[in-house]
Structure formats: structure tokens, C-alpha cells
């Protein structure tokens, strides 16, 4: 594992409308306490989301790939204190 605590929740966006995905992900992230994380499950590489995090939440998050496709991507996203 990555040395991070277990994720507090899982957000599986594969069945969620694309326009609703990023708002849900950011709402989940914003609800984390420092040191907590959540597991994102997606059906494609979430690079645009990572760039959005870098722009909107710089120096506030960790990003650890746990699975990188080709059908499922799992990313542990943590909040830095």
C-alpha cells in the first residue's frame, strides 16, 4: 500500500453522468479532514481530473494510482493537512 490510511469512502463514477462526476468528486474531497482519503473508481484515465485538482486545490491533495486500466482505474485521493 502507499502508507496512507485506508480510504474513508469509495466514489465510483462509472454509472454517474459525466457532467456530475467532477462536482461529486470535489464535494467528497472537500468533506475530508486532513489525513483522510477516498477511493475514486473510474472507467478511464482521470488525468483531466488530476490537472483540475492541481489548478483548484494546489498543494492540498495526494494522488496515488492503485489500478491503471485498461477497464478500471482506481485512485486514492487524500487531503493534506
Overall description:
This protein has two helices and four strands. It is 28% helix and 31% strand. The protein has one domain (9-79): Translation Initiation Factor IF3. A four-stranded mixed beta sheet has the order 1-2-4-3, covered by helices on one side.
Shape: globular
CATH fold-level assignment:
Translation Initiation Factor IF3
Low-confidence runs: none
| Sheet with most strands: strand arrangement | 1-2-4-3
Derived from helix and strand composition plus strand pairing, the structural class reads alpha+beta
How many discrete domains? 1
Task: Describe the structure concisely.
This protein is of the alpha+beta class. The protein has a single domain (9-79), classed as Translation Initiation Factor IF3, CATH 3.30.110.40.
